[in-house]
């Protein structure tokens, strides 16, 4: 009887590792799908053949994320961003604002050959609000990507990827910083740019003209946590 009790208890304790292994196996599918995906071309047009000081236009763009290929995020989107003007994109959560930025950064493309990434098992529990909200339909055929994005007269996919991204300054909602001083984080962000070799502690001290500048310099040499809690 004691042996049976010990065996039952051991089997019960083994269930948790088995569940963890199952979830890890499913999550690994995402990584292998990304690793095996074809690499995007990084070569193309750059200055002086192309210029970032041009209008940016989306023409009839249809888009769905590789991890959710059946859910259309952008539906026949046509919009033009005029060069030299400040444009604000306003909309509800999930309406595609961040998707537009992702397409401009070329994190995703509009290739007609859709790459589907399997959906991993999630540990995040479904909240009561999520349970009552009708989920988008994820059955049927994957969304066919289409449309075009142009910078001036050139398709965005024809631009040199490294050069194009060097023309964009992006501040995300949740900045990720290194566990170092704010000054060092700024310096790391300028590596590879035309300003990288000019930024140093001496350049910071050169700005010491006002009390506000002094306070800013002191803040720049404080250690910033990885959650940006000390940025204020």
Identify the notable features of this structure and list them briefly.
232 residues, alpha+beta, Rossmann fold, 3 domains, 4-stranded antiparallel beta sheet, 7 helices, 4 strands, 33% helix, 10% strand, disordered C terminus
Topology overview:
Elements: H1 2-36, E1 56-63, E2 74-81, H2 97-104, H3 128-132, E3 146-151, E4 154-155, H4 161-166, H5 182-189, H6 201-205, H7 211-220
Antiparallel strand pairs: 1-2, 1-3, 3-4
Q: Would you kindly provide a written description of the structure presented here, covering whatever features stand out?
A:
The chain is α+β, with helices and mostly antiparallel strands and 232 residues long. Residues 121-134, 208-214 and 226-232 have low confidence and may be disordered. Helix content is 33%, strand content 10%. It contains seven helices and four strands. Strands 2-1-3-4 form a four-stranded antiparallel beta sheet, with helices on one face. The protein folds into three domains: 1-36; 56-121 and 128-166, P-loop containing nucleotide triphosphate hydrolases (Rossmann fold, 3-Layer(aba) Sandwich), CATH 3.40.50; 171-232, no CATH class.
At a glance:
By secondary structure, this protein is an alpha+beta fold. Helices cover 33% and strands 10% of the residues. It has 3 domains: 1-36; 56-121 and 128-166, Rossmann fold (3-Layer(aba) Sandwich); 171-232, no CATH class.
Query: What's the CATH H-level superfamily name of the largest domain?
Result: P-loop containing nucleotide triphosphate hydrolases
Strand order of the largest sheet: 2-1-3-4
Mean pLDDT: 75
β-sheet strand percentage: 5-15%
Low-confidence stretches: 121-134, 208-214, 226-232
Architecture of the largest domain, according to CATH? 3-Layer(aba) Sandwich
SSE ordering: HEEHHEEHHHH
Total helices: the number is: 7
Derived from helix and strand composition plus strand pairing, the structural class reads alpha+beta
